[in-house]
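Database export, one record per block. Field names are fixed; values are copied verbatim from the stored entry.
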Amino acid sequence: MQNCVFTGVSYSSPTLASAMGQLIPAFTFLLAVIFRMEKLDWRSSRSRIKIMGTLVSVSGALTITLYKGPAIGAITTQSNPDPIPSIMSTANSWIIGGLFLVTADLCVSIFTTLQAAILKEYPSEMAMVSFLCLFGTIQSSIVSLIAERNPNAWKLRPDIELISIIYSAVVGSVVTFGVTAWCIRKKGPVFVAIFKPVGIATAAFLGVIFLGDTLHVGSIVGAIIIVAGFYGVIWAQSKEDEHSKVNRPRNLQSLSQRLLSWRAI
């Protein structure tokens, strides 16, 4: 997935990579329906709301990514527009980059769906994360030793580079994978994938607070759209949980009645 992302960005642009990343909820939802992890009932209002909420969240993330709009609380000055890549002159590279990015998004969706299948049979999040990190380290070490022959590239200095590596290892891998696996086991892969658009809105506002970025109208509009779609999915998920809890005692009661009738016979 990472290799496809880097290759796709080199052929196209980071903007296209951010836009393509919003395909993850849609891919995950389709895979969950195919493997019967999610029930798709067009007659149920909850299923329709969940589908519409997913599409709305994806459209909100695309709004933040592709639409900038005027700045909020800033004085607009006459300046040269940002350089736009010539899509027509590099059409082949743009298409190749898009294919790599779509492949990366599909890999993420497959990975999330596989985690749900594994945790259903073996509900131990930390054991799965431990094996995941172990074999990921072994594979990355072998590839890195073959691909990187410069010994200076392996030197780490006690600065922001070392801090970022430690943070990525602890938070980006162990904590993120552990919490994600726990959420997948509790709520399923679609519930986890729907948070992808929410992360874009969160990153936009954190950039304003900590990095001094300028807040634009597109970020506000996109965040509102994401929240609306996200709330719809969460509401539909909660209603499905309530419905399953209500039906579960009835199923258990009917099963116990069958056992008593069989004993009587």
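Remark 1: Residues 75-89 have pLDDT under 50 and may be disordered.
Remark 2: The chain has ten helices and no strands.
End of record.
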